[in-house]
Every structure is written in structure tokens, then in C-alpha cells.
């Protein structure tokens, strides 16, 4: 192989890498599409807070994705919990700041299940709220 063909080959390889990097939408995980789908809310057996956390919240909150407060991060949860449970629950249901998805990314979770998942995260810092789900 001459050095010319080698360089030519290299250029082609680089071109195809940069083209695929620019192609829109072919690397999406489908997460936000999934969030927009209408799915039935679970009316059957209610999952525990820990189950819901493992099922949906941990994906982001377990590794601080885009600043998602991790269970056990007392500073973050204390700061946020000062808003009160009604506001925290509202942010869980409606989503928050474009990074926290509505219903915590669990469109099939019932309000009560989401409240339990929130309680579960707060409980890691011994922060507790009593009372009914708003
Ligand atoms: C796609 C990632 C993602 C998933 C999944 C997710 N969260 Fe979040 N959540 C975030 C991020 C990011 C923030 C921080 C937003 C900010 O303050 O900028 C956040 C913040 C929150 C807050 C604090 C809101 C406030 O007012 O400070 C609560 C409560 C919360 N999430 C609950 C949940 C629950 C419950 C689940 C699971 C049912 C869940 N989240 C799943 C990304 C996620």
C-alpha cells in the first residue's frame, strides 16, 4: 500500500466517523420518547418506595446524573426539603427544571408509589415527612 492510499483510507474513515457523529437522533436512548407515551397508571398491587426507586429513580438519582440529588446527600436533600413536601411532590409529578422528568420517569407509577419513592430517598437522610400524599 502506498502512503497515498493509506492517507486516503484514513480520510475516509475520519469522514464516516464525523458524519455518524452529526447524524441526528440515532444515538437516543428513547427515554424521553418513552416518557411522552400514554401508559396506564398502576392501580394494582402498589410497589414499595424502594422498588420504585430501583425501577426508575436510581437511573439518575443513583449517580447524580445532571445534578439529580443522590439519596444520602444530606446537604442537597435538606436544602430541597425546606420547600416542603407539597412542593417536592409537585416537582415529582410535574417534573422540574427540564432535567427531572414528569412522574420521575415512571409514567405507570401511581401518585402514592411516587410519594413512597420520594419518602424512600428522604429516609436515607433521616428526613421524614408525615401526612397524606398531596
Ligand atoms: C432522567 C433523570 C431522572 C429520573 C429518572 C428521576 N429524576 Fe428526580 N431529578 C433529576 C434531576 C436532574 C434533578 C435535579 C434538578 C435540579 O434541581 O436542577 C431531580 C430532582 C428531583 C427532586 C427534587 C426537586 C426539587 O424541588 O428540588 C425530587 C423530589 C425528585 N427528583 C424525585 C424523583 C423521583 C421520586 C424519581 C423516581 C420515581 C425521580 N426523581 C427520577 C433527574 C431524574
Question: Could you characterize what this model shows?
Answer:
The protein is mainly α. The protein has one domain: Cytochrome c-like domain (Cytochrome Bc1 Complex, Chain D, domain 2, Orthogonal Bundle). 52% of the residues lie in helices and 0% in strands. The protein is built from six helices and no strands. α3 (49-61) crosses α6 (111-123). Residues 14-23 have low confidence and may be disordered. The structure holds heme C. The site of heme C has 27 residues, from α3, α5 and α6.
Offer a few descriptive terms.
52% helix; 134 residues; single chain; mainly alpha; 0% strand; Cytochrome Bc1 Complex, Chain D, domain 2; 6 helices; binds heme C
Number of strands: 0
**Which class in CATH terms?**
Mainly Alpha
CATH topology: Cytochrome Bc1 Complex, Chain D, domain 2
Helicity range: 40-55%
- Average pLDDT, all residues: 82
Enumerate the spans where pLDDT stays under 50 for 5 or more consecutive residues: 14-23
Bound molecules: heme C
Please give the domain count.
Answer: 1
Named at the architecture level, the CATH assignment is Orthogonal Bundle
Query: What kind of sheet is the major sheet?
Result: none
The end-to-end distance, rounded to whole angstroms, is: 72 Å
Order of helices and strands: HHHHHH
Structural class: mainly alpha
Principal-axes geometry comes out as: globular
| Overall radius of gyration | 21 Å
Oligomeric nature of the chains: single chain
Strand content: under 5%
How many DSSP H or I helices?
6
CATH homologous superfamily heading: Cytochrome c-like domain
